[in-house]
Design a protein that fits this description.
Layout lengths: L2 H61 L8 H5 L1
Amino acid sequence: MAAGDVENQAELEEKTRLINQVLELQHTLEDLSARVDAVKEENLKLKSENQVLGQYIENLMSASSVFQTTDTKSKRK
């Protein structure tokens, strides 16, 4: 085997290694992107649930006499 052939073989192996590394990184990026989308969707769902629960708690508090503000000065008169 000539020195040029060995050099070409080493270059080819390096290119193959780099291509495989790029492909692996692309797959990792795709997985991370899908995960980000899933987390965004879950976040929106939880925000919506929090709004509903917040409104529910507000309604309960306004309906309960325990949480009503009282004006003690006017009651003393």
